[in-house]
Amino acid sequence: MSSITGADRMAPDAAPGVDAGFVLLGRTLAATLGPSLSSVLSAVGMSGELLTDSATIVRRITALDDRHHDTGAAIMRDLVTSVTQQYGDGGATAAVLAMAMLRRARRATAAGANPVLVRRGLARGAEEAGAAIVRQARPVCSGAELAALATANCGDEELGATVGELIDFVGQDGAVAVSEVSGAGVWHDYLDGSRWTARPANRGVIGLGQCELTLIDPVVAIINETLDEPRRLTRLLEVVQAIPGRPPLLLIAPEITEAVQTMLAVNDRSGALINVPVVLTSARVHLAEDLDDLALLTGASVLGDQLGRSLTRVRESDLGRGRRVVLRRGDLTLRGGYASAAGIDARAAALRAHAAGLGAHHAAHERVWLRQARLTGQVAELLVGAPSDAEREPRVRLGKRLVRLLATAQGQGCVPGGGVALRDSAPAVRESARDCDHPDVRAGMAAVVDALDASLRQLIRNSGRIDPSPILLELERAGPGHGFDATTGHCTRMVEAGIVDLAGVQVGAVRAAAATAGLMISAEVIPCRN
């Protein structure tokens, strides 16, 4: 249980303890930065596991003995979690940056600087650094580049290559749905059309021994209410029977009772009207949205008494058409409809804007993004397996993280890796600080400048070099774009060596680190667990 008491104020005796917990967890995470794959041993009782991923480490370390240490670690945990959720990577980088910023900012406030103004300088410095990183970015154009980025990030060549291929296929506005599957491999499927979770209203809809049913040019009736009275469908059946060519009827509803199914089956077997009743199995909270999207794609109106469109007064103009519909026992795929392309594009654009407003870390973002991609037919499916159940879940999580990473790469490009883009953004921050009038704001910006080479320093240390100074001096003589290749132990031009980072991840990490360091130096009251 958490409480706020007078002892929790950021008094001189509380701040060092909070900082110590923040740094303690941060140093643990820093050991995982870079390609050396340093591990953290997580031990419980007589068992343990080696962890190399920052997001997994912060989930495992849930509490420290000292309550002030625990609070500092919780702040670090929140920083890493939020960066990883939003960008798919960058947690360890954000941790290293935040520790360096906090160290320099604490020195400034100890010397008498106003914490609020120092915090303002941290934010301004982070914005300048972010803009400088973006200026270094170059687009990621090919599937091969995307696959190389993914593989370098995760070390799983099969998964990285597949995700890179899928992201390249669906494009910047597309979506990749990730799910687990039995077996040890990785499979993928390019969805031809738009797909929803659905099932036939009864087993007889799809013939015995058949996997799917295909309808060509069906009439589509979409109903947002339970179909439980056969007589209420009389008008609908009459309208469809009067349509020239007697097309088949695809009837979509959230629930269809046995009585209605029997009536429809009698009509179908007698040849009066070929009909296919389908139950949409979307979660109830998403049902109305999915029915609306289906209606948009087919040109139909959603019917229902509560919507003011009663089945007893249905007209042909209330019905839609689909060029080709494929029904399987777990999903419904629409391949082309008769809807207005302008209407589809407008709704997709509105959904993209909504997703951008939510932010990638929001729980609803993935759902909103998938809707817009499904409307435009830009969806692929990634099926992830592993040799055992224990390995499958983390591999699925890794697949989802790679999808977010590569989507960020497509949108914002890549920059020289190994902390080089961060270091090369420092001159822009330094130049901006010269135009700042207030010394306390300049102190905050200086803290950002001081931190921008911390990631590079840590990478050099993680490669086994105790003192990074000689290598840093060599890189300074070599100029911008040059960094340290930890796998070879040599200085090189990072982009030419294929060592790159995602621009969006680096920008997000530096901004989040500055915000966290600013919070810690300016907070007056903090909650601690008793």
From TrEMBL:
Signal peptide: none annotated. This is 60 kDa chaperonin. Keywords: Chaperone. Forms a cylinder of 14 subunits composed of two heptameric rings stacked back-to-back. Interacts with the co-chaperonin GroES. Pfam families: Cpn60_TCP1. It comes from the Bacteria. The keyword S-adenosyl-L-methionine does not apply. GO terms for molecular function: ATP binding; ATP-dependent protein folding chaperone. SUPFAM superfamilies: GroEL apical domain-like, GroEL equatorial domain-like, GroEL-intermediate domain like. Belongs to the chaperonin (HSP60) family. Together with its co-chaperonin GroES, plays an essential role in assisting protein folding. The GroEL-GroES system forms a nano-cage that allows encapsulation of the non-native substrate proteins and provides a physical environment optimized to promote and accelerate protein folding. InterPro entries: Cpn60/GroEL (IPR001844), Cpn60/GroEL/TCP-1 (IPR002423), GroEL-like_apical_dom_sf (IPR027409), GROEL-like_equatorial_sf (IPR027413), TCP-1-like_intermed_sf (IPR027410). One of its GO terms (biological process) is protein refolding.
